[in-house]
User: Fold these one by one.
Assistant:
Number 1:
Amino acid sequence: MKIFLAALLLAAAAKAQPIRVIKFADAQPFRMGEVTSNRLVHPGLGAKKTTLNYSVSMPGNEFAQHVHDYSDDTILVLKGEVDLRQGDTKRRFKEGECAFVPTGQIHGTVTAGTGEAIMISFQNPPDLILYTGARDSKRPGAAQPKGDITPGAVKYLDFANKNGPFTEMKMGSTRASGSHRLLKKGQRFSSKVEGDGEQLLFAWKGVITVKDKAGTTYTANEKDTIFIQGAAQFEVSAGSDETHVIQVQAPQGK
């Protein structure tokens, strides 16, 4: 009974606070293959339309091949280079590039090169099974993933040289949009979330401040995330000379 009441209180608090700062230090780890990742935005926080995971992988380490039955997966390389593995085939992508993996496509990553790789990924909608380890095809006795390997289905994109959206509906990203925002000191942009939507702002480099219509401010330091759930209008501004923000809107936003 006490656990049930605690869950109700947490849910009520989340609903009452549409804008939250998710500290990187509070991330929760999970393991797939040889890679330990961190959950930043996930269903445990009440997220229903998007997630955000952060991974650091050493050379040769593999994030096990798996399939998302109902989710699209977008993987961004923030540092280093990795191979996207699909069965016996591999495709290299590197810092500043991302891979958009549609629902049902078998995929995993193998860190290439001589240094570590740092990646973030977001799934739309969240894949609850991913965090349980049940999709880890490298576990002893685990079955190989069942899904598709369709030539051309995975899209490889340059996100770091975009100042705006890098995924779009016409390439198959119908459940969410990903944007890279480059802000110089003093620059800002406005955004909003509809009543049934979610948005996250990951501070890749630098510090960001979000101010809502009531004048309340929220600050995210480097690697922190601001998570917005439900109807909100706000302004995002840079807190340093040059700030890089990864913005995810689910569903597609303006």
Number 2:
Amino acid sequence: MPQSTAYPMKLTQCSRLSDPACDDVIVKISLERLNGQAIPHFIAGQYVRVDMPFMKEPAPAYFAIASSPYHQDSYEFVIKSAQGMSEYLVNLPLGSEVEVEGPIGKGFDLSHYKDYNVILLSVGTGIAPLRSLWGKIIQERQDYAKVSIYAGFLTALHTLLTDEMNELSHHDIDVSLSLTTGHENWEGAVGYVQHALAEDAPSAENTVVCLAGMSAMVDACTETLHNLGFHDDQILLNF
């Protein structure tokens, strides 16, 4: 991959995604080029490095792009406020400038999987790179067979992008939501996302899986996929 170059962008949107009652603050932010140019081309699942110009703190950090590659006006991200750059971005005033480098990483390249079934699998803010991917798939829906999304969240207060995912049935995309901790009004799956996957037991034949999340989740889901007959070359990671 050619050496990427840093370029200035400005914060144009910051909206909360997690429930106001949730202790974890998770937001969607948008960054636009200062000169109005289109953002660099990227592959769904890639990420960028974000830095604050002329500041030593916070340290630069990497964030997966959550917007579709077909959306060329801005980058969108799904960010959980924690220490460092993520907390800084969540509290940054609109119009503030940041420095962006990228896109970086291999992303989810589905160019060799035309007519395959595609499974998207994530937990928490791991939904960000998969949102980029399902945005791409919507535009190319005729290129794939069955498309399914398995997304896991800690509680109902932590669910993200559910309004968007509820609309995916209009694009012939199936969605399964799991909560680690359910509640009396929850009718979906309860437990870890790999449990919902194992219960459905999708066929590995002519199927590719795009997997995003924390390393422990990736390991657990990979084990489940192996038990279902998937091989490593059918399990794609974006890094």
